[in-house]
Write a structure and sequence with these properties.
Shape: globular
Distance between the termini: 56 Å
Largest sheet: 3 strands, antiparallel
Number of helices: 6
Helix content: 25-40%
Order of helices and strands: EEEHHHEHHEH
């Protein structure tokens, strides 16, 4: 039996709810404003979630480009295969839904792949935000297209540098 633990982490683009146990991270989701009113924030982060919070913090301050966490997302075998493939998209890069479908071996499954992307339970760490429309458009993101845009800009290699 699982002893699922929960914590919350404030990101630049919303409050993340992190759930997991000794078997790994099961979900990371971003909360909307309506949900925040009902949240009771724990005083301490459970041990099994501390590394996740630390790595997310490093990601948001620009010191981490890859995550090294034990993941335990819950889904069908097909969804699991789609989420595994998302992990192959490098930091700072994007892939189209069609390219992702080709990587999975069935171009006719594009709608099913897009649907599985939308059900990705582990926000940011399993980088569904790196999948874009064939024309480069920022389509289909459960956390909101503005967050997808923010994340892609955050990961962009062409960040503004100051001269002084």
């Amino acid at each position: 039996m699982s002893n699922l633990q929960t914590t919350y982490y404030k990101t630049p683009i919303g409050i993340a709810k992190i759930e997991g146990d000794k078997n790994g991270i099961q979900s990371i989701s971003v909360l909307d404003e309506d949900t925040l009113a009902t949240v009771s924030f724990p005083k301490e982060t459970p041990n099994c979630l501390q590394d996740c919070v630390k790595q997310l913090d490093e990601y948001f301050v620009g010191k981490r480009t890859a995550f090294d966490l034990q993941l335990n997302p819950q889904g069908t075998n097909f969804q699991q295969s789609v989420w595994e493939e998302l992990l192959n998209i490098p930091f700072g890069r994007t892939r189209t839904y069609l390219e992702q479908t080709k990587q999975l071996g069935d171009v006719k499954a594009i709608r099913a792949v897009a649907s599985a992307n939308g059900k990705n339970p582990i926000w940011i760490v399993i980088p569904c935000h790196r999948v874009v429309g064939s024309d480069g458009s920022l389509t289909g993101y459960a956390g909101g297209v503005w967050r997808k845009k923010w994340l892609l800009e955050h990961e962009s290699a062409a960040k503004q540098q100051t001269l002084f």
